[in-house]
Structure formats: structure tokens, C-alpha cells
């Protein structure tokens, strides 16, 4: 038998080492070595939990975050205490919210009551909120009606809000309520105008127009019944993301999209 034949002999169960000695490669030895490399169960559990926590933080920071509806302002589509998911990808790379988007944003300044602004107090839910697995307080959800440069006017003879002169047909998502004659009543009447919306700002409204402390409710207008604030608009930088799923309760699970009502709104002149 030649040297080459011996090197390839399957019956040879030893391998050479750098110093020329031989070491065992038997199945029992390999199994023992493999067994020694396994982490204890408790260490593996901690490692997996750590990886899951890091992934949750990354997902919350970059992709998806959970919130709840704090009031009746978005009825009939979104009801108080509904759980929703917000995606952030749509506003990456300098892209901004569009008319018709339902967005979640940080309180721009005393829009929320103390109870609505409260964070989770339970230790577990507080931790879950920090990693995006449980809804947090201090945020609002509204529909974008006007973007930079837009002028919003209330209302035409049919009670419709107009954006840049284009009346909006909002029957598909705005709550119909007796005693309210138009789609913008939070000022106390149906005759007001807002804008042009400043650069980097948004004009937002709830879908329940008679019960929504939105941009229209914070306008400073002569002889109007409003909760006047210095800035009735929402900074684009305060927007967390766009609502895309009504997650819970499960019997009302639904996708949330941009309605057709805004498709024909012209750009501001």
C-alpha cells in the first residue's frame, strides 16, 4: 500500500496534529466535544430574550409601533381604546405625510388632558411600552387635511370642507351626527378659514368633527369659540408614523388607508 493509499484509508480513525502526534476522531469523542459547547438552558434563555428585546427596540425605532385610541375623536372608523399599529417606512428619506393619511403624533402643546397624556404605570406594561409592544400615552391620532401651503375653508352649501378650493366628499369616513350642519364645527360655527399651512406643518382633523380637539379647535379666530393656541398646526417632525392596521378588538380588524376624497385636491397656488 502506498503512502497516498494510507492517507485515504477509511479504516484509519486518527488524524495528524501539527506536532506529528495522532488524536482520536471517534464518534464518542466528537459527541463529547459537541456536548461541552452547549450553553446551559438558563443562559440560552437569557440570550434569546436579549435578542428578542433588541429586535423589539429596533422594530419600534424604525418600523412599527403600537398605540391605542385615547378618545372618540376618530369615530366611526377608530373607537376609543382600539389598538392600532403605526408604520414608519412611508416617511423615510425625507418623505412627509400626505392629505388623507391617518397619523399618530406627539402632543404639539397641551392638546391632551392629564389622563390622556398618562403613560402606563404597571411595571410590565411600562417596559413593553418602551420597546413598542404596548401602547404609550402622550400621543394623538388625527387625519391630515392640509399640508404645507394648503388653505382649508369651512364650509360650502353642502357642509363640505374645501382644500385649495376643492370640496371634500368625506361621507365614507366622517361621523354623521344630528345637529351638526357641516364637516368642521369645532370652531362653534360653519364659517372659518385656515392657512396657508406653514412649511413643515400639518393641519389635522378628527373624523368625529363634533368631538375632536384638532387643528380647527385650536385656531385663533375672531369671535369664534375655540381653544386658541399659539400654533394650531402639527409639526411634521412630531409625526411618529402612519396608521395602517386596526389590530384589536379582533372582530373589527381592518386595514387603514388613504381615502379617495383627497385624490383631486389641487396643489396650492
Describe the protein's architecture and organization:
The protein has 269 residues and is α+β, with helices and mostly antiparallel strands. The chain has 5 helices and 14 strands. Strands 3, 4, 5, 6, 11, 12, 13 and 14 form an 8-stranded antiparallel sheet that branches. Strand 8 (162-163) and strand 9 (166-167) form a beta hairpin. It is elongated, with a radius of gyration of 30 Å. The chain starts with a helix and ends in a 14-residue tail after the last strand.
Q: What's this entry about, in short?
A:
This protein has 269 residues and is α+β, with helices and mostly antiparallel strands. The chain is 19% helix and 22% strand.
Topology (SSEs and partners):
Elements: H1 3-7, E1 14-16, E2 22-24, H2 27-37, H3 41-62, E3 64-68, E4 83-87, E5 102-106, H4 114-117, H5 123-130, E6 139-146, E7 152-154, E8 162-163, E9 166-167, E10 192-194, E11 201-205, E12 234-235, E13 239-248, E14 254-255
Antiparallel strand pairs: 1-2, 3-4, 4-13, 5-6, 5-13, 6-11, 7-8, 7-10, 8-9, 11-12, 13-14
Number of helices: 5
* Shape label: elongated
Query: What Rg is obtained from the alpha carbons, in whole angstroms?
Result: 30 Å
Termini Cα gap: 94 Å
Mean of all residue-level pLDDT scores: 78
Strand content: 15-25%
The helicity comes to 10-25%
Structural class, from secondary structure content?
alpha+beta
Sheet bearing the most strands, described?
Answer: 8 strands, antiparallel
Low-confidence stretches: 1-18, 20-25
> How many beta-strand segments?
14
Order of helices and strands: HEEHHEEEHHEEEEEEEEE
